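Sanity check

After download, print the first record. It should look like this:
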Amino acid sequence: MELPCIKVRKELAQSTLDKLRREGKLIQGYQLKREGEYVLIPCIEGNERADFQKVIRKNLEHVGSFEKIGDFYVVKERDNWQDIVKMLREKTSPRAIFLDSGVKGFSRIRDLKLVYGEGEPKAFHRENHIRLYVDLSKAYFSPRLATARMHVLENVLKFKQDKVVDMYTGIGPISILLRKNGINVYSFDINPEAIKIAKYNFQLNKVQGNLAIANSNSIADCLSKADQVIMNNPSQPIETTLKVMENFRGKVVHLFIMLKKDKESEDIFKGMQILEKYEIHGYSPSVSLYYLLIRISE
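Expected structure tokens:
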């Protein structure tokens, strides 16, 4: 079907899709088209026109209750998790399915149990035109944040970026995106295994990294010379996050945080300018994961 569309470079396709969805301008139900280094996206008010094919859906239910990483799935532990495992076995061909009982400890390791298939929760995973080695038994990773990670890159490029700090880098998905776009980023994590995997992922994507094992919270004052700070540790208590942010006066902060859906952010982040706020996904009936772009007053 011929539809109005826009043409964007392939590395900007995911962030553009996310923006169009938020604005209600994406024409959904159709496959994107590739033209060399560009992607055509069907949308209202598009300045071009092209033929698009309808998406053939596998009709997977309970989307949001499971995650696909490489050749395995992770299913959140909830009342109907057995039904979700059954659905995945019937409609896909997973190597393994793991039950996720939550993230635990300072190292943010998922409590996983193998409920179908064989092997370990490790695989190579692709997102945002980068390749990542993932081992959930050693370091945290969630593919559900892929769009948000690209959005961080998009926002980092809008401000001074001589020095950017990724405080809780994990296996490096945000830091690698920034490095591939020429941004000088310093990456820290308290988990030695996460840093080890991140170093491998930097090599895998042919970029140089500045990585170190550290408790970023305890050295936050040393990181205050950065132009921008990325804080992707939403399971951390809000009180701890706010205390750490006191070190970044006059800086731009990219914050991932769990908030009550009916809570006004201005009441929590007093003295800070919230430049952007969007809901990444729901966590419970009353709580969601949000991304906030914040400029902290001097």
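If your output differs, re-run the checksum step. Summary of this record's structure: The radius of gyration is 20 Å.
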